[in-house]
Amino acid sequence: MKHVFVVGLLMIVTTSLLAQRPGNNSTNHSTDTGKVFDIREKLVQLALQNPDYEVADRTVNRSLYELRKAKGSWLGAVGVSGNLNEFSIKQQQSGVASFYPRYNISVNIPLDMFTTKRNDVKIARENYLMAEAARNNTFRDIRAAVLSMYEDYLMHKARLESQIRMTQDEQTILISKERDFKDGLINQEEYTKYNKAFEGANLLKIEYERNYKVSKIELERMIGMTIEEAIALK
């Protein structure tokens, strides 16, 4: 009868605790390899290999293991002991009728076991959910950063290309005006004006080229490869 009571008690406790298993509500950022992504989405996926996201992902895994550990730790608090009744055995061996059980089984369950373990599981679950929220927030931050960097990269690239054309136009005009100045068709003041226009355009080109290179470096640092390699990926 005591055997039935112990087994039944253990089954009830096990069922109660395992019923609190969390659902699989983690954010899945994996891609469908058969789908053609915009280059922006491709850059985001590459940036998710950033160490910051890896740390956030591993933190979620660690919190999940801690939750599972908390759910199973109640077994260590339950003590089951048994012993043979030596007096009863000796009486039976001597032929004397015995009214004592041949063995004793006891179960030691701390009074606060259920509340303590239930709270431990709740704390572990909250830590797991907090780790998931932090990971999702890291994903959003990385996504926003990569998309912003890519837009900056496109802007600086367009500015540079436009300024290169303008600088070339100013240089062509300056070459023409140099001939006019040598031929005496324009004076020094007018020639100086065209020369300054070219120098101003060239300085802007140098500035835009620098901005373009920096934006490219920052974007490539996030995705872990050159933008040309990323575009070539299938």
Q: What is the topology, as strand order, of the major beta sheet?
A: 1-2
State the end-to-end CA separation: 68 Å
What is the rounded Rg? 38 Å
Query: Averaging pLDDT over every residue, what do you get?
Result: 75
Report the strand count. Answer: 2
SSE string, helix = H, strand = E? HHHEHEHHH
Number of helices: 7
CATH architectural name: Up-down Bundle
Assign a percent range to the helix content. Answer: over 70%
Number of domains: 1
CATH topology label: Outer membrane efflux proteins (OEP)
CATH H level: which superfamily? Outer membrane efflux proteins (OEP)
Q: What low-confidence regions span 5 or more consecutive residues with pLDDT below 50? A: 1-36, 87-91, 96-100
Largest sheet: 2 strands, antiparallel
Q: Which structural class should the secondary elements be placed in?
A: mainly alpha
- Estimate what percentage of residues fall within beta strands: 5-15%
- The CATH class, by name, is Mainly Alpha
